[in-house]
Amino acid sequence: MTLSPTRTGWGFDAHRFGGPPPLLLAGVVVSTKIGVVATSDGDVLAHAVTDALLGASVLGDMGEWFPSEDPAYTGADSMSLLRQVVSATAERGWRPSHVDATVIVETVRIAPHRSGIRAGLATALGLAVDQVSVKASTTDGLGALGAGEGIAAVAVIDVEPTQ
Q1: Which CATH number is associated with domain 7-161?
Q2: Taking 90 as the threshold, does the pLDDT of residue 4 lie above it?
Q3: Model confidence over 144-161: pLDDT tens digits?
Q4: Domain boundaries, the chain
């Protein structure tokens, strides 16, 4: 089988606020005052990157790999799930080469945590920090995210053959 030189995947995740703190992004605590409603630890950034990696590798989505209704994933560490997908991707001949992600949230400041978030993703993906971009945005008050009801993340990831 011949693999194309690169592939790109896109991922998205969103959770509403109201669960127990803390709020995590790529395993980094960004708030000790709020949390999200989720089966796992609710790390929207790790989930978006994981889904993007699954898409780029044509391996399905997080719901197939880690079903919400499976009690084994209650409180699961999302960065551990990402690392599992990185391993599965490698077994199929692909490795991440770059990730670009945006966190969309009205009420939490990302900038103070950006370097730790980038480092966490880089470690999980086997990348250098300069291959990981993490940005933040708001919706300027528009919709549920703008009303401060939750948090979302989108991610684009490139993968290349391991050979």
Answers
A1: 3.30.1330.50
A2: no
A3: 999 999 999 999 999 999
A4: 7-161
